[in-house]
Amino acid sequence: NGSVRINMANVDSPLQIFVRAKKKINDIFVEIDDYVKDAVTFMHAVAGEKEIATAQDVANVEAYISKVQAIREVLKRDHMKVAFFGRTSNGKSTVINAMLHDKILPSGIGHTTNCFLQVEGSDTDDAFLRTEGSEEKRNVQSVSQLGHALCASRLQECALVHVYWPRELCALLRDDVVLVDSPGVDVTPNLDEWIDKYCLDADVFVLVANAESTLMVTEKNFFHKVSTKISQPNIFILNNRWDASASEPEYLDQVRTQHAERCVDFLSRELRVCTPKEAEERIFFISAKEALLTRMREREKPVTSPTLADGHQVRYFEFVDFERKFEECISQSAVRTKFAQHSRRGKNIAADVMAVLDLIYNTATERKSAMVEKQRILHEQLTSIEDQLTAVTKQMKEKINRMVESVEHKVSLTLSQE
Ligand code: GDP
Questions:
Q1: What is the CA(161)–ligand 1 centre distance, in A?
Q2: Ligand 1: nearest atom to the Cα of 84
Q3: What one-character-per-residue DSSP string does 220-266 give?
Q4: C-alpha 291 to ligand 1 mean position (Å)
Q5: What is the DSSP letter of 89?
Q6: Ligand 1: which of 85, 105, 107, 163 to mutate, judged by most atoms within 8 Å of the beta carbon?
Q7: Quick one: CA torsion of 287, 290, 295, 296, rounded to 10 degrees?
Q8: For each of the chain's 418 residues, which pLDDT tens digit applies?
Q9: How far apart are CA 353 and CA 349, in angstroms?
Q10: Hey, what's the torsion of the CAs at 332, 335, 341, 344, to 10 degrees?
């Protein structure tokens, strides 16, 4: 079907920090699971008549089995989540497509995303859609079909549609990145609802701005709200449509400096989510349209493409640079927020089970030494009885001997007198 499979794991990708951490923590929880189950089996053996473990101890440890199971389920599903925001037509869908190296989301004139679209990896070879709250899966073969399916379903603005795309076709999806496209921040009064529903667990936010204009109040407002609900959100700003600058090269540096200063100011002084120096590393001037085109050509997909404007290579490198910094940021943030809490819980569970086993061990040792002491006392008592018996027997023997002697004496005396 013309699709290029990306089978080789990109071991250099910063996303591997998350991928490896996820594998490791999943393996550790398999071990914790075994440990808890072994402990339960052992405790059953020493409970009951033996009374070394109490029924309560057994029940306490047994309760950990389902807790560990629940954590394992969550861990298996954990992913890195990035949410894209910005005004309608700034190029959110195009940025996502460029990052996925394929035209997955519909974009362009005539189509505006009027719901939330969450693109995630599918374990099968098929691409399909599922609306949140419904079990129905609809196969999609192409972008236009996806666009039609979205229009036909007359979704509410706040609805969430899952787009499952074969993992093997996109490196980001294969490495457990989930990408969320949003309706334009200019079309909704329900920013709060959006944030509560779809953003609280996002590891990274990408604001797709239009380099042809300045940051809009609606765009800024959205992020003001985000930063009241999430402490220190990770925000990247993409000044998209930077290819427009090619037509006015004489103003290029001036415009870029002006945009950059405003963006730095917004992130560091207005939102206070990072220092000005950190903010500089979060701002990029790109052309998503060119990046997508370049990648479609690399994959030898048929594209009706105009020639790219001057400076497209520089803009493409900047896009690649954005992706690298984004990957570093999202993987580190996700490891911290998703796994730190679970590794603490895992440690506590192991420590609790160990404490119970320690207690059982101590009870058993105390019982053993009490029994040894009892035996020692009994032994002493027996020895003293034995000694007494020996003494008494000796005395008796002597007494009998003396009696026999005296009787013999008396008998011989009587005989001699006669
Ligand atoms: P969204 O509504 O934010 O998702 O925007 P889309 O991704 O649908 O893009 C809207 C229109 O802008 C489409 O026709 C895109 O081809 C075009 N577009 C997106 N990125 C760029 C860009 O970097 N340069 C130019 N010139 N056009 C772009």
A1: 21
A2: 3
A3: HHHHHHHHHHSSS--EEEEEE-GGGGGG-GGGHHHHHHHHHHHHHHI
A4: 11
A5: T
A6: 107
A7: 140
A8: 444 444 455 677 899 999 999 999 999 999 999 999 999 999 988 887 777 888 888 999 999 999 999 999 999 989 999 999 998 889 999 999 999 998 888 876 555 567 888 999 988 888 888 888 777 887 777 666 676 666 666 666 678 889 999 888 888 999 999 999 988 887 766 778 888 888 888 999 999 999 988 888 888 988 998 999 888 899 999 999 999 888 888 888 999 999 999 999 999 999 999 999 999 999 999 999 999 999 988 887 666 666 788 889 999 999 999 999 999 999 999 999 889 889 999 999 999 999 999 988 998 899 899 999 999 999 999 999 999 999 999 999 999 999 999 999 998 888 888 7
A9: 6
A10: -100
Strand pairing partners for 8?
Answer: none
- Strands laid side by side in the 283-285 sheet: 138-139, 128-131, 160-166, 116-122, 177-181, 80-85, 204-210, 235-240, 283-285
CA distances 56 to 45, 68, 206, 237, Å, are: 14, 19, 51, 56
Rg (CA), the chain: 39
Label residues 200-229 b or e (16+ Cβ within 10 Å = b). eebbbbbbbbbbeeebbeebeebbebbbee
Hey, which residues does 180 pair with through a beta bridge?
Answer: 83, 118
Q: What is the ipTM of this complex?
A: 0.99
Contact 181, 147 (CB under 8 A): no
Q: CB of 119 closer than 6 A to ligand 1?
A: no
Q: Could you give the 3-state DSSP secondary structure of residue 115?
A: coil
Q: Whole-prediction pTM value?
A: 0.82
Beta carbon of 112 within 6 Å of any ligand 1 atom: yes
Nearest 5°: phi and psi at 80? -100, 135
What separation in Å is there between the alpha carbon of 224 and the centre of ligand 1?
Answer: 25
H or E element: which one contains 218?
helix 217-229
For the chain, the helix, strand and coil percentages under 3-state DSSP, each to the nearest 5: 60, 10, 30
Q: 390 CB under 6 A from ligand 1?
A: no
Distance 175 CA to ligand 1 centre (A): 26
